[in-house]
Amino acid sequence: MKTNKKMIIAFLAPAVIAYMFVSIYPVIHSTILSFFEVSAWSGSEMKFVGLGNFADLLQNSVFIRSFGKIGIVWLLGGVGVFGSAFVFSALLTSGIKGKSFFRAVIYLPNLIPVVAAAAMWTQYIFSMRFGLFKNVFGALGLQSLANIEWTSHSVIFWAMLIAFVWGGIGFFLLIILAGVERIPVELMEAAKLDGATMIQVFTRITLPLLRDVIRVAVVMWSITVLNLFSFPMAFGQTYPEVMTPAMYLYQLAFGQAGGGAAGAGANGVVYVGRAAAAGVILTGIVVLIYGLLNVVFKEEKLEY
């Protein structure tokens, strides 16, 4: 049966055009805007400033600190998310009954809207009056932990991180679980017969055969963290302790009545060009991470 190239092009053309319009064009347009000073979304003159927007951002302490916060979320949050995902995947593939039920329960937080999840954590878990943490720690006699004001300025970032990790475990569990389930059971059974412990099976068989899955998962985690916006906004958008690059970009691009963080869109003033430069920096970081991961996790063709 001959392949009709014209028919293939005809079917692919609408999808390619839509993809270029929705994805490629905004990237190109934002990159161009990043070299100009633009003070409004429409009806504003564009003044070419070269790399001035990038220089202003890299000299801005709030923007730099926001990357420090993101770094903590990426590292500590990643340890929590992937550590929990690997533990749950090991339990779910151990022959436990009700596997589908437990998998659905673990994934459930991903179906809860961010605003509802933030309200649940701040009002019913972190609350100093009747929160879950206060009651549980108090019942266990751990008064120092029970007296922590999780929604205060000094602790709100760690409270947000705990909630964010809780909400991300289910998604990455499904990715890792799909990779673990494709590994032949015979390999693990043979290793156990040879006297291998569970840790040796995990480090010598499971992890090496999950290289591609881990690479994809880490890239997706990096993109998720760099785009972190909803959780910190819901927890405390006026708190500088939870400021992320995405939040800072938002304040630059759309302004914030009543003042923003260190001049970021303060009093409704917008900085479209600088916001575009922030977006370009975030995109560049994602591309860099993807390139580094391709070097660290080199693609290998495995047959099993």
Write structural notes for this entry.
This protein is mainly alpha-helical and 304 residues long. The protein has one domain: MetI-like (MetI-like fold, Orthogonal Bundle), CATH 1.10.3720.10. Helix content is 68%, strand content 1%. The protein has helices spanning 5-33, 52-58, 61-92, 99-107, 114-125, 132-139, 143-146, 156-181, 185-193, 198-209, 211-226, 230-236, 245-254, 272-296, and strands at residues 36-37, 47-48. Mean pLDDT is 81; it is low at 257-267.
Mean pLDDT: 81
Q: How many helices?
A: 14
In CATH terms, what is the architecture? Orthogonal Bundle
Low-pLDDT segments, ≥5 res: 257-267
Shape: globular
What proportion of the residues form beta strands (DSSP E)?
under 5%
In the CATH scheme, the class would be Mainly Alpha
The CATH topology label is: MetI-like fold
Any idea what the radius of gyration is?
A: 24 Å
**What is the string of helix and strand elements?**
HEEHHHHHHHHHHHHH
Q: How many β-strand runs?
A: 2
**Secondary structure category:** mainly alpha
Compute the number of structural domains.
1
Characterize the largest beta sheet: strand count, sense, and whether it forms a barrel: 2 strands, antiparallel
Give the fraction of residues assigned to helices: 55-70%
**Whole-Å distance between the termini?**
33 Å
CATH superfamily: MetI-like
Fold blueprint:
Elements: H1 5-33, E1 36-37, E2 47-48, H2 52-58, H3 61-92, H4 99-107, H5 114-125, H6 132-139, H7 143-146, H8 156-181, H9 185-193, H10 198-209, H11 211-226, H12 230-236, H13 245-254, H14 272-296
Antiparallel strand pairs: 1-2
Helix pairs in contact: 1-14, 2-14, 3-8, 3-11, 4-8, 5-12, 8-11, 8-12, 9-10, 11-14, 13-14
